[in-house]
Amino acid sequence: MSELTGNRIRTTAAKLGLPHLAETINEFTRRADEGKLGYQDFLDLVLSEELAVRDDRRFRQGLRLSRLPHHKTLDEYDFSFQPDLDPRKVKDLATLSFVEAKANAALLGPPGVGKTHIAIALAVAACRAGYSIYFTSLDDMVRNLKAAEAAGRLTSKLRSYLRPSVLVVDEVGYQPLERAEANLVFQVISKRYEKGSIILTSNKTFSEWGQVFGDEVLATAILDRLLHHCEVVPINGPSYRLKNRLQAIERETDVA
Fold first, then answer.
1. 184 neighbors 146 (Cβ within 8 angstroms)
2. How big is the chain by its Cα radius of gyration, in Å?
3. Beta strands 230-234 and 104-108: pairing type?
4. Is 169 helix (H, G, I), strand (E, B) or coil?
5. Are 197 and 98 in contact (CB under 8 A)?
6. Residue ranges of the AAA+ ATPase domain (predicted)?
7. Tens digit of each residue's pLDDT (9 = 90 or more) over 208-247
8. Model confidence pLDDT, tens digit, residues 44-96
9. Burial 19-44 (b: 16+ CB within 10 A, else e)
10. For residue 2, what is the DSSP state?
11. Cα–Cα distance between 103 and 231 in angstroms, integer?
12. Would strands 166-172 and 197-202 be described as parallel, antiparallel, or unpaired?
């Protein structure tokens, strides 16, 4: 390929929004020559790699906008430490069929059992699959909605929790809410109903949500919409954080 032709291809690729091709056309040409690729195979190679680069760029951008506190995968989760948790149930969720169906997933259990880890891993998988995601604790969401309501911007702020395909709501039940705060949560849940997925974690059973939301009727209305299409995963094993702390103490004792 002549230098003039290469420059023309790079210019055209850049105009078409194909930056990877523009940067690597010489490498593609070399691989085509070495592999004696036909025209269709060469075109398939170029387009496949451009698509892979574009998907990776979109994935990384999605993670940046997601507000996830960290990026975990299910491969990093120690299922052997939670023998009562059926890995198949979590891995079924990882197929993201519930996201495609605009259904929900609820991870319930005491602190430290890995609920947030699984929620984040599912969100990362959804992001890689092309879904938009957003992470928030329940307390942060309520605080932001209250501030927006006071400033006359509630409708605009609600959109940030309604827009993503998957909304992760962490730590439901750690702090009880006033009725006005619970009503803001109800607005998010009801407006997302059958329009987008919610992944939530909670240290409370659903029977305790009346106490969490300060109103049995409102809690029932929230649960009615949340649980209509929802996969519930109880995790009732020991705490990972306690396990790690005990191991650290044992190491310190051994050293001493």
1. yes
2. 24
3. parallel
4. strand
5. yes
6. 101-234
7. 999 999 999 999 999 999 999 999 999 988 887 666 554 5
8. 877 888 787 788 888 899 999 999 999 999 999 999 889 889 999 999 999 99
9. ebbbebbeebbeebeeeebeeeebee
10. -
11. 8
12. parallel
HSE value, Cβ hemisphere, 13 Å, CA-based, for 148: 17
Percent of the chain with pLDDT over 70: 88
Distance of alpha carbon 13 from alpha carbon 22, whole angstroms: 5
State how far the Cα of 61 lies from the Cα of 57, in Å rounded to an integer: 6
Provide the residue count of the chain. Answer: 256
Report the alpha-carbon distance of residue 13 to residue 149 in Å, rounded.
Answer: 47
**Cα–Cα distances in angstroms (integers) from residue 158 to residues 126, 155, 191, in the given order:** 22, 5, 9
Residue 230 β-bridge partners: 104
CA-based nearest residue to 142, from 176, 184, 204, 172: 184
Higher pLDDT, 36 or 5: 36
Tokens of 13: 């690729």
Angle at 20 between CA 15 and CA 26, to 5 degrees: 100
What's the pLDDT score for residue 243? 62
For 140-149, give one letter per residue: b (16+ CB within 10 A) or e: ebbebbbebe
Q: Which two tokens stand for residue 35?
A: 């592999």
Give dist(CA 47, CA 80) in Å, integer: 42
